[in-house]
Specification:
Radius of gyration: 13 Å
CATH topology: Trna Endonuclease, Chain: A, domain 1
Strand order of the largest sheet: 1-2-3-4
Bound molecules: magnesium ion
Number of domains: 1
Largest sheet: 4 strands, mixed
Structural class: alpha+beta
């Protein structure tokens, strides 16, 4: 249950499309993504998801299965987590394992 058939080798961009679709299906009604981060502060997570019904907000950096978390991205995730925010990294492997749906439905 909740295991998503995400192909091996999927790009981060393709993965993001899947994540946004799945989040929408599970009732996460607001999703923010910076489309061009070049003039923004480095490292801010790719996605902010909001479910008012659940009273939850998720900050997630998306990576391909082989993508590396940059130093700046790690600083943001650690800082948000220390501030009490649900922040982390999602990879296609997390879709296959069911982790993403688990975290969306927790
Ligand atoms: Mg990313």
């Amino acid at each position: 249950m909740g295991v998503l058939g995400v192909p091996l080798g999927i790009s981060e961009g393709q993965f993001q499309v899947v994540v946004l679709q799945v989040a929408g299906l599970y009732g996460w009604e607001l999703a923010y993504h910076t489309f061009d981060s070049r003039r923004s502060v480095a490292g801010f997570p790719d996605l902010v998801l909001v479910s008012s019904r659940r009273g939850r907000v998720l900050f997630r950096e998306l990576k391909s299965d082989v993508g590396r978390v940059s130093v700046d991205q790690g600083v943001w995730i650690a800082g948000l987590t220390a501030g009490g925010v649900d922040a982390g990294v999602w990879r296609p492997a997390d879709a296959r394992s069911g982790r993403i749906v688990r975290e969306l439905t927790a």
